[in-house]
Amino acid sequence: MAGNCMCNEAGVLIFPCSGGSDVGELSDRVARKMAKCGQAKMFCLAGVGAHIPGMIESTKAANKIIAIDGCPVSCSKKTLEHAGFKVMAFNLKDMGYEKGKTKVNDESIDKVSSKITGGKV
Predict the structure, then answer these.
(1) Tell me, what's the pLDDT at 10?
(2) For the chain, which terminal residue's Cβ has fewer other Cβ atoms within 10 angstroms, N or C?
(3) Are 79 and 48 in contact (CB under 8 A)?
């Protein structure tokens, strides 16, 4: 797997929505794949939303902040923006995935990961 990964991007934090639906699960699994691959560090959206000081400071130190949302509500993006962060946002709806109609499998995880990383997964 390491041969297919781009170089480790230091200071990249990724925040999936991890919502209660299929697209939330897909956003979470994409983030976990990217973290395992060394492309980003998966971080706690709930901690940022709760304004936990250490988590806010860690997020401020990031070079890049990526939000992956499963649906048009965009909870991850909005939570991060509400906390004052500039975000590179991706929404699975914009990639053709629909809540309640999405299969969460290796194919969909790879497809979304590739779109986010520009094919460097």
Answers:
(1) 54
(2) N
(3) yes
Collect the ranges in the chain with pLDDT lower than 70.
1-10, 119-121
Token pair for 75: 């909870």
- In terms of pTM, does the model score above 0.70? yes
Give the ranges where the chain is alpha helix by DSSP (H). Answer: 22-37, 45-49, 53-60, 75-82, 106-117
pLDDT of residue 54: 95
> 70 in helix, strand or coil?
coil
Q: How far apart are CA 83 and CA 106, in angstroms?
A: 33
Rounded to 10 degrees, the C-alpha dihedral 107/88/23/115 comes to -20
Cβ(116)–Cβ(37) below 8 Å: no
Residue carrying structure tokens 């990961």: 113
